[in-house]
Amino acid sequence: MGDKMPHGPAMVFGMGAAMILGFLLALFIAAIFLWMAGKLLGIEKASIGRAMVAILGGGIFGGIVGAATAAIFPPLAPLLAFLANMWVIKTVFDTGWLRAFLAWILSAVIAGIVMVILALLGIFTIGALAAL
Q1: What Å distances lie between residue 94 and 32, 59, 78, CA to CA?
Q2: Coil, helix or strand at residue 42
Q3: From CA 112, how far away is CA 98, in angstroms rounded?
Q4: Which of 5, 65, 108, 128 is 20 to 30 Å apart from 59, CA to CA?
Q5: pLDDT tens digits for 93-131?
Q6: Distances in Å between the alpha carbon of 67 and those of 53, 89, 97?
Q7: 33, 107 contact by CB (below 8 A)
Q8: 63, 88 contact by CB (below 8 A)
């Protein structure tokens, strides 16, 4: 093939667009689960928009805190990253630490239940998680 690229710029653009759309879809789905958990726990300010901000902001802030802590004292990094994520959920939903933690846990439980239901219906396979 020589020095020719096998894929042109359209292919690279298409792959980038698909990645961005996939990211936004995953963000929206995770936000739905966090929103549902917040509503079930009686968090008044729980909304889809706030849940999206909490998911994205918590991930970014938790990652920054975790990376900064890992550079100084690695054993403490996961705990501080987790607390940073919880702080974002707490702040965005304007609730307490316990409700933020329970919303986080309940959103994971709801996601698991939805995956099991989809798997039983044949729409989703647990093996698909291996790609993650």
Answers
A1: 18, 18, 24
A2: coil
A3: 21
A4: 128
A5: 999 999 999 999 999 999 999 888 887 887 766 666 655
A6: 21, 19, 23
A7: yes
A8: no
